[in-house]
Amino acid sequence: MSAQSSYLNKKGLTVKDLVTIGIFTALFFVFELIGSLPFAPNPALTFYQPFGIALLCGPVYLLMVAKVPKRGGIAVLGIINGIIWYVLGMHWAMDLGYVVMGIVAEIVAGAKSYRNIKWNIASFSLFCLGPAGVFLAYFADPAAWAETMLNNGTSQEYIDMMTASAPAGMLPVILLGTIILGIISGLVGKKLLKKQFEKAGITV
To answer: What is the pTM of this model?
Structure first.
C-alpha cells in the first residue's frame, strides 16, 4: 500500500491535518483581505467584495484540498472564516454564509473523494458565495441589516452611501459574478499547480 493510500485510509482529521488546514486558512484569509481591500472600504463598491475574494483565493483553496483530501477540512475552513469575520464585526449573515457554504462545498468536493479538479473548482465557487450572505440579508431587509451594522460600529454615512449606490437587480449579479470568477480562479490554480495536483493523485 502506498503512503498516499495509507494516508487516505486514515479516518478523520489528524493533528497534522488540522495544522495544515490552519496554515492554509491563514493564507486564505490574507488573500481574502487583499481581494476585499479595493471594495469593502468603499460603500459604492462594497457589493463587489465577493468578486475579489473569488478571484484571488482559488489556488490556495485547491491546494489545501489537495493536501488534506478528507471530510471536514473545507467545513473547518468555512467555520474559522465565519468566526474571524464575526470577531471583526461583520454582519452575522456573512459569518453564517461561510459556515453554510463551507458545508455545501465540502459535500460537492467529497462527492468525488476530493480527487476531481472540476468538482473541487465547483466546490470553491460555491464556497465563495459564503461572504455574499451579507448581501442576501441586505436586500431581504435593508432596515434590519442597517440596524445590525450600526450596532457593529458601521457609520450611518457609510450605510446611507451604500444604500444610495445599490442598483436594482444587484443580487443576481453578485451571485453569478462570484461563481464565474471562482471558476476562473480555479482554472488558473489548476494550471499553476498542475504538478502538485498530479502528485496528490487529483484528476486534472
So the answer is: 0.89
